[in-house]
Amino acid sequence: MDARLGKIILLACLAMGLAAGSAAVADNLYFTVDSGDNDTLMMVTGLAPTTGAPVGLSGQAGFKAAGTGSDGIGAIDAAMIGGQPRVATGGQIIHLWDGNDISYLKHSDPTGPGDNNPVREIVLGEVGGNEDRLVIARETGTGATDILLQMFEASTMSHITTPGPHNNIGNAVGMARGNFTDSFPGSEIVIGTTDLATLNKSPGFQLYVRGDNLGWLGQQPVQVMTDVATGDLVPGLNNDEAIFTGNIGGDPGPGNGQQSHVFSTGPGFSMDYQWNNAGGGPHGPSASGGLTFNAVAVGQLDADAEPEIALVGDNVLRILNHDGSFVAQTGPTGQNMTDVVIADVMNNDGVNEIVAVTDSGLVFAFGPNGGGALGVYNAGNPITGVASLRVIPEPASLVLLLAAACGLAVARRR
Ligand SMILES: [Ca+2]
Ligand SMILES: [Ca+2]
Ligand SMILES: [Ca+2]
Ligand SMILES: [Ca+2]
Asked: Which pTM value belongs to this model?
């Protein structure tokens, strides 16, 4: 080897060693914030532990804020698309943002000018085997009790398909992607629906559609729900299952309210009940009552291979095992938590935290066992949604060659 080339490689190796020493990067967090009629998207690249009174979210690593020019923002999702971090938000219009710095990329107004019927739910990323997808759920018009699904190519925001609306099924209150069956490619989409006020029907449905064309697969009544999440909650069966939560069972009380129900899919895409966590003990009402769940997330919170479940709501954070067995409950929190994610956002340690946001404008970070908050941060306005994303750098071939030359082992976090 030429001496000069050797020196260059040595310097590059030193630089890579330094980079590897600080390579642990927390998952990004993105927040939708209700700030009047020009709602805000905010991001941080990590949270620092704090004690005592809430500290400003704007003081956290990588903080950025962007005006959306849209009201009613709250639907949010994040995914890697073509090796790039992307964030999608839905209010009166749909936005696609660069997940590195929430700079604006594209927008689409699915209802056209003059119609402010909001996007209720949004899913970004792989569905139907194609990672470049954005799916929204809304109504056909203001006050309608139907669900209109629309699929776009995410990177171009070009329209792909809008099947006919699902009539008399209420409004979407949760939407997630999961691979429920191998009969159809990639992930399918599950939607929770509810509309007690206007429908003389079941107060809530689970609705499944194909990921490749949004074709209807099945629906089934569940009762009042607020959110849905997916994960491999029944190991050894299919791939993913869906968990619905909310005020299922009616007003909160012993055996009612605050339930979560898990369903798998069977032959012919039947919807097979797996378990619910209704009942007494930790699942009973709080001393102050009113314990209902607003949101659910599925993710890894301990060392066993199965995922855990985080539920947040009015005055409560509850953690369950994948089979519904009780792990921990934190509360009363004195806060109405509106959304939750499970992500590694603190300490760069590969250990996930539970991040919950509130309608009073606070971000709570809890450890994987709940308990006292590891930090509380103030965004200044009500937070309507949160999404997380692990940004996976695309290794350039030169970097890989250098890594090989330096003899660096490539370590991967779980
Ligand atoms: Ca599938
Ligand atoms: Ca499963
Ligand atoms: Ca686990
Ligand atoms: Ca962590």
From this structure: 0.88
